[in-house]
């Protein structure tokens, strides 16, 4: 077992030994649902698409999540193929949720939550602070539930921030180019 995995498992074991309690067992199972399949954040983005003043933010969230889906969940998880912590030899833990069928690195739940939180932060949306709190809690829930290593979660958060910024930049560039084209087309018609 390499040094990083040994460190990762020591952190997970510390959490399991020192923080495990009935309240957190229930709370973390609920909190982690905010990252489940990205459904919550996809719904937020879709709702934003129907509100003209938030439409651009919804598009940015969608672009960020699409990047995360392709690069994080599609390419990186399968390319790296990291075994889940509960499947490591010598690990014996009673899981609070069902075993997962995909690989561990990076944490997709953390990724999608930080993508959404980053876009909302960059856009100075009033939901930014609650989104950041949710993102951090979801990241912690993945550790508490023993389904991700700390490095999975850290990478998921960093990638989420990067994809959130990329989604914002890409959509902003397309949005501004489209607005400029509409202006040019409108001026030519006059």
List the helices and strands and how they pair.
Blueprint lengths: L2 H16 L3 H10 L7 H11 L5 H26 L27 H15 L5 H17 L5 H40 L1
Helix pairs in contact: 2-6, 3-4, 4-5, 4-7, 5-6, 5-7, 6-7
Would you kindly provide a written description of the structure presented here, covering whatever features stand out?
The structure is a single chain. The chain is mainly alpha-helical. It contains 7 helices and no strands. The longest helix has 40 residues, at 150-189. The radius of gyration is 19 Å and the shape is elongated. The protein starts with a helix and ends with a helix. The mean pLDDT is 92.
Offer a concise description of the structure.
The protein has 190 residues and is mainly alpha-helical. The chain is built from seven helices and no strands. The radius of gyration is 19 Å and the shape is elongated.
Give structural attributes:
190 residues, mainly alpha, 7 helices, 0% strand
Q: How many helical stretches?
A: 7
How many DSSP-defined strands? Answer: 0
Shape descriptor reads elongated
Order of helices and strands: HHHHHHH
% residues in beta strands: under 5%
First-residue to last-residue Cα separation: 71 Å
What structural category arises from helix and sheet content?
mainly alpha
The biggest beta sheet reads: none
List the quaternary state of the chains. single chain
Specify the helix fraction band.
Answer: over 70%
Low-confidence stretches: none
Rg, please? 19 Å
Mean pLDDT reading = 92
């Amino acid at each position: 077992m390499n040094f990083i995995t040994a460190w990762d498992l020591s952190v997970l074991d510390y959490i399991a030994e020192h923080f495990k309690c009935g309240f957190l067992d229930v709370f973390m199972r609920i909190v982690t649902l905010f990252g489940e399949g990205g459904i919550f954040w996809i719904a937020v983005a879709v709702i934003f698409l129907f509100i003209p003043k938030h439409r651009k933010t919804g598009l940015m969230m969608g672009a960020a999540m699409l990047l995360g889906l392709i690069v994080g969940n599609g390419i990186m998880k399968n390319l790296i193929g990291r075994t889940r912590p509960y499947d490591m030899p010598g690990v014996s833990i009673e899981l609070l949720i069902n075993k997962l069928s995909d690989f561990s690195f990076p944490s997709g739940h953390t990724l999608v939550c930080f993508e959404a939180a980053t876009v909302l932060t960059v856009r100075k949306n009033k939901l930014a602070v609650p989104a950041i709190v949710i993102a951090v809690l979801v990241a912690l829930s993945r550790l508490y539930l023993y389904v991700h290593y700390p490095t999975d979660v850290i990478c998921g958060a960093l990638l989420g921030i990067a994809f959130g910024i990329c989604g914002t930049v890409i959509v902003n560039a397309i949005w501004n180019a489209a607005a400029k084209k509409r202006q040019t087309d409108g001026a030519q018609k006059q």
